[in-house]
Amino acid sequence: EDSPAAKEGLEEGDQILRVNNVDFTNIIREEAVLFLLDLPKGEEVTILAQKKKDVYRRIVESDVGDSFYIRTHFEYEKESPYGLSFNKGE
Length: 90
Hints:
Elements: H1 4-7, E1 15-19, E2 22-23, H2 29-37, E3 47-50, H3 53-62
Antiparallel strand pairs: 1-2, 1-3
């Protein structure tokens, strides 16, 4: 709620179409997240988005998405801020 994006009017369910002249219409969520996380802190960002709350709600309610589950047989400690640490059996 107190993020810079929310303060500028971006809401949950909005579809991001472009960020700083980079087309987001055909990239997967992970690529978008990595791109956004890599933006320098404090730098001005231009975002083009459209309201898609109805589509977003249908996706959430239908449980359709890109979630998946993997059981691990080893331990892993993340090596970068984008990594995910996990323990054997998780």
